[in-house]
Amino acid sequence: MTHASATARALRFPLADPLFYSLQGEGATLGRPSVFARLMGCTVGCAWCDTKYSWAGPPAAELAGEEILAYCRERPGCQVVVTGGEPLESPFFEVLLAMLHEEGLRIEVETSGYLEPSLVALALADQWNVSPKLASAGIAEEKKPRSLGWLHRAKEPYLKFVLHKPAEIAEVDALLQSLGLAGWPPERVIISPGGKKRPEMEKRLLPLAEAALARGFRFTPRLHVLLWGDKRGV
Ligand code: SF4
């Protein structure tokens, strides 16, 4: 164990939800058993955010690094999804990645993409799920990514867009151009339907699936909403 890792194991990580074990509900690894570490804090301010409780403290849990590792060890084969909030705003982000990586755990990071990760973070995470926000999120200009060119240097990068109506797919096309991702492989773009509750999401499934297919984009429902609705910690 390195000195840095011993420090991380003793550090207490502020989380917006207690650690939870569930199926990855969105994206390229949909359905994969995962431990979710929801780091506290987000200043992006999406209008339709379903985790507003993650924006500011107090945290729902503060776990020592060693407790996080013990939780993962009890669930063999799990990966860890580091999410938020906006995990790249958290001062605990890189130290958490380093500790999980040293433990040999596969790591996915969920981010809005407005902050560029460091080279250290890029080396530590195994998959990046980046969700630039569309106009429906109503966020301030400074909270939108200026460029996502760094995705070309990331391992397993995916862009994930939550849409509420098929016409929004034109915004996706425009964003790919403006974010330095013209020519980005369409199979690395994932469209998912918005909606906090199952009936809200279900009515969007077919029209959005067809819009995604027409572009060669992937489409996934948000599995956790189908299974558990807007229940927290699943
Ligand atoms: S970036 Fe994520 S956590 Fe932050 S406001 Fe938007 S949806 Fe919510």
Topology:
Elements: H1 3-10, E1 12-15, E2 20-23, E3 33-38, E4 61-64, H2 65-73, E5 79-83, H3 93-102, E6 107-111, H4 119-124, E7 127-130, E8 157-163, H5 169-178, E9 189-193, H6 198-215, E10 218-219, H7 223-228
Helix pairs in contact: 1-3
Can you give a write-up of this model?
By secondary structure, the protein is of the alpha/beta class. The protein has one domain (3-228): Alpha-Beta Barrel (TIM Barrel), CATH 3.20.20.70. It contains 7 helices and 10 strands. It has helices spanning 3-10, 65-73, 93-102, 119-124, 169-178, 198-215, 223-228; strands at residues 12-15, 20-23, 33-38, 61-64, 79-83, 107-111, 127-130, 157-163, 189-193, 218-219. An 8-stranded mixed sheet has the order 2-3-5-6-7-8-9-10. α1 packs across α3. The protein is globular and about 50 Å long. The mean pLDDT is 95. It binds iron/sulfur cluster. Iron/sulfur cluster binds at residues 42, 44-46, 49, 51, 54, 84-86, 112. Iron/sulfur cluster binds next to loops.
Helical stretch tally: 7
Number of domains: 1
- CATH 2nd-level architecture: Alpha-Beta Barrel
Uncertain stretches of 5 or more adjacent residues: none
Which CATH first-tier class would you pick? Answer: Alpha Beta
| Quaternary structure | single chain
CATH topology: TIM Barrel
Gap from first CA to last CA: 32 Å
Please compute the radius of gyration using only Cα atoms: 17 Å
Estimate the mean pLDDT confidence.
Answer: 95
How many strands? 10
Broad shape: globular
Listed once per kind, the bound small molecules are:
iron/sulfur cluster
CATH superfamily: Aldolase class I
List the strand order in the largest sheet. 2-3-5-6-7-8-9-10
Main structural class: alpha/beta
Order of helices and strands: HEEEEHEHEHEEHEHEH
Strand content: 15-25%
Q: What can be said about the biggest beta sheet?
A: 8 strands, mixed
User: Percent of residues in helical segments?
Assistant: 25-40%
